[in-house]
Amino acid sequence: MHDPRPATPANSWSRLTPGITARVAPLHAIRPFRRRPDAQSGATMRGQYGVGRHSLQQRARARMLGYDATRTCRSGRSCASTPMNWEMGSDMIETDVLIVGTGPAGAASSLFLSKHGISNMAISRGRSTANTPRAHITNQRTMEALRDAGLEKQCMALASPGTDIEHHFWLRSLGGEELARTYAWGNDPSRKSDYESASPCSLCDLPQTQMEPILLAEAARLGSQIRFDTELLSFEQDDAGVTAIIRDLLTNETIQVRAKYMIGADGARSRVVEQLGIPLVGQHGLGNIFNVLVDVDLSDYVTHRRGIFYQIIQPDVSAWSPIGLFRMVRPWDQWIAVLVVPEAAGTPTPTTQDFEKRIRELVGDPHLSMKIISASMWTINDVVAEHYAVGRVMCMGDAVHRHPPANGLGSNTCIQDAFNLSWKLALVLQGKAHPKLLDSFNAERQPVGHQIVKRANKSMMLNGTVWDLLGAGTRGGSTEPRRSVFETREGRAALRQALDTMKYEQHAHGVEMNRRYASGAVVEDGTPDPGFERDPELYYQPSTRPGSPLPHAWLGTRQPGPRISTLDVAGKQRFVLFTGHGGEPWREAARTVSERTGVDIKIVMIGASLDYEDLYGTWQSLSEIEEDGCILVRPDLYIGWRSATLPAEPLRALDSAMMQILELTSAR
């Protein structure tokens, strides 16, 4: 079937490398069949999905996304193929939120909005979810968001556990001399307790190819419309919403979508950011790197020294790629060979045979059997958007923060962007909050984007220092510099110091966990900022000061049962008020404020013989309030307000805080 699309960079690359298909075959999985009002919630599009063209391929894709392509819809009708203007002959689709992009940011937005009961439509010009496992490290803060959505177990079942990504290695070849190694990703014995005490969730390695289908399948189950082979052409916004023109790339049909809000999650070449004219600050094109996805069994080389990165320094072997990294995708027979191209090499155009030869050199086996699945080239960027929103259009993910993969911050930041925005959009769309609440998305997340872009690029520089010390900075006779770093006291000390600084990539727990927000959706309590007692990039410091993430503490119930985290009794698309002994008046205050605002506020009392027991005294030590005080937690598990003690008028105090968070103070 003819593909009417212009060649993408991936398609162009496949022409330069015979035998490599950089995009998978068309898999048009989920096609909206019809929509109807849901009798219980009043929402629309409750899982009415069918399968359209290319039935065998679609059925395979639908199975991956958790659907039976042959099933009937709830109405009893067959879920048959339908044209794009599926709305009973209408030439316009209406939805609350149009999401452009189905990568981690777009898929997570669709999921979290659906959890809040908000109708949404996510489109992607791609033919399927990601076909290369670019993003993979999934940190504890992201796993907490997925746990809140009920997907933690499903994700962990497909992920590689932290014990499989225990080390980073530097070698002369995979079968040759090992030059150095470091612990990574919470596996340093001196750091394990930091990770274990910080969260009920574990860090893991979950490739993007596995994560995206999980997110989208759950979003679709909840009623989201997911459309592949659909591109955004243009959009306009007014005081009431956004009108977008989209095109079905299979039929070349165009149609209008009318949404109240739009999310631009369309990646590093974002058309949404471009049309909005959002300034991008920083530098593009700081280096070229090839990613080669390859099926190759390397178990003989790695099972005795498990890790996620095996960095191989061979300047005397290859001029166009003196440094190669093997990144584990699936233990231990699928990998990405990351080939670093020095500036002096320009922009090479290697063939499939060149890649195979280079991979065999990196392993040290000229007869190694392999199957190259795809290859692509990407550039190192150091770019963040000046702001994330214009009017009714909010942007997130790689569209607004573009950086190398060091520290594994990419998909994590994307998903956390979505978790931050979804509850705010939901309350605004439900008429329970003023639209000004949405300003807090930029105020809270743009500084995070700036931080992670700078951290990732600094970590790339740290890697470069190690590479240079091991001889990668020279050509030809580079064996001598490599030897000298080990043969002199100064060289060994320099290498050890460089390896020690790698903890800012491999154990930057604070970068992952220490987000503290300042915005209109956070009500300050007048206490001074406590700062950080230890390096805030390396170490997580829990706090209940407004703007901080809710600390994790294990709780128990009066009835026998498994322990539960404070994060488990919070979240779930609602506000939660924590208090303890003497805090009973907060219960009535929460009930009254909830009735006034229409916003669900759950009250949780922690203490002996209360709702939950403080099993180890951890909550008492972390809460930073008296027993009769309270902590108000937002739906995204961040603290919106606290009161150190029970005031004379708890209703007035809580009502004032909620009005400020919802930006309703001026409306009264």
Automatic annotation (TrEMBL):
Residue ranges of every copy of the FAD-binding domain listed in the record: 94-456
Protein origin, superkingdom: Bacteria
Keyword Iron-sulfur: no
Annotated region (Disordered), positions in chain: 33-57
Alphabetized InterPro entries for the sequence: FAD-bd (IPR002938), FAD/NAD-bd_sf (IPR036188), RIFMO-like (IPR050641)
Keywords: FAD, Flavoprotein
GO MF annotation, one: FAD binding
Protein name as catalogued: 2,4-dichlorophenol 6-monooxygenase
Species annotation: Paraburkholderia elongata
